[in-house]
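Morning, I've got a small favour to ask if you have a moment. I'm working through a protein record and want to make sense of it properly. The fold is given in discrete form, as structure tokens running alongside the sequence. Can you walk me through what the tokens say about the fold? Thanks so much in advance, here it is:
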Amino acid sequence: IQKGSILTCFNIVAKGLKFKNVGKNEIETSKASRTEKIKVSLALGENKIAKAGEKTVFVRIVTPDGKEMAKNYDDNYRFNFDKSSGYYAGKQALNYANTEISGVTYCEGKDPLVAGNYIIEVVCDGVIIGNTSLRLD
């Protein structure tokens, strides 16, 4: 039952964003120097075994230089997953009712973004349920 209750995550899309008009207009960019936040869209799949209710989805991003991206490196941004712990760049609470639900998380870091490949992992209930990558020039 425990394995069967693990949620599935699909349609994970990550995009670099810059903002105009004080954060109101999102503009997609592939340039690391212009990226202010990384927008991660995702969908959780239907699962009749999983417990319904509020699910917190964490987005962990590993930068091209191997560091974890986080707005701050204190205990407020630390979380546990797969028998280890790390820092998250974004999180969102979703009201899961055992049916497909989509969500969007805006991730940001403390340090300026660098060019390269970003590894993005989606974690829910302490388990990595999906991943993707984003390349910024």
Observations:
- Strands lie at 9-20, 25-29, 37-44, 53-62, 78-81, 84-87, 90-96, 101-107, 116-124, 127-136.
